[in-house]
Amino acid sequence: MEKKDTMALVDKGLLLPLMEEFYTIQGEGFHKGTAAYFIRVGGCDVGCHWCDVKESWNAETHPPTNIELIVENAAKYSDTIVVTGGEPLTWDMGPLTDRLKSKNLKTHIETSGAYPLTGDWDWICLSPKKNKLPVGRIYDEAHELKVIVYNKHDLIFAEEQAALTNNNCILYLQPEWSVRDKVTPMIVDYVMKNPKWKVSLQTHKYLNIP
Fold it and tell me: For [4Fe-4S] cluster, which residues are the binding ones (predicted)?
């Protein structure tokens, strides 16, 4: 297949630049502790300096993969499918979620919201970033807001973002892993003073689970 034909299928969401796919335990947020199949899609231009999967940024390094194959693999392992990145909303997620739903699979997404929301989702984890703010209706649709805290100024950003979300959105503050010893006490203190927030930890890292 010629490159232009391949890219046309990527643009339609029928092929996706697949970085990796794996079955594991969800380590963060509301569904922590739940077995889930993760689909990590390449491509992201948000550019978080503390990102722990920077190898996902360049979509061209990850093979355009037929979503039929992705769904077939996912269905073998779990009924909960988490689509993450990179930034998955770089691509049209509609075709992927349509096929996941056709197999009665639960669809979850982890996104910065930097691109318009596409796809049919049972759970939306919105993790906004200062570099490239969320767009469109995702504030109204998000089930949880997860703000990564690297320093005290991120608490101000968290409140600004929380003010934009819907009333049912669950609010989480999560320490950035490399500075967790420094910022976790600050987060705990903040949540105790502002109990509308909850603490999210990367429990999979503490448990040494991929």
Answer: 44, 48, 51
Q: What is the pTM of this model?
A: 0.94
Q: How many domains does the chain have?
A: 1
Domain extent at residue 136: 15-206
Q: Which residues of 30-54 are buried (b: 16+ CB within 10 A; e: fewer)?
A: bbeeeebbbbbbbbbebebeebeee
**Is 174 a domain residue?**
yes
Binding residue numbers for [4Fe-4S] cluster: 44, 48, 51
**Which residue reads 């990179």 in tokens?**
86
Tell me what the pLDDT averaged over the chain comes to: 94
Q: Which tops the pLDDT comparison, 99 or 7?
A: 99
Annotated binding site: 25-27, 40, 44, 48, 50-52, 84, 86, 127-129, 210
Which residues make up each annotated binding site for substrate?
25-27, 40, 84, 210
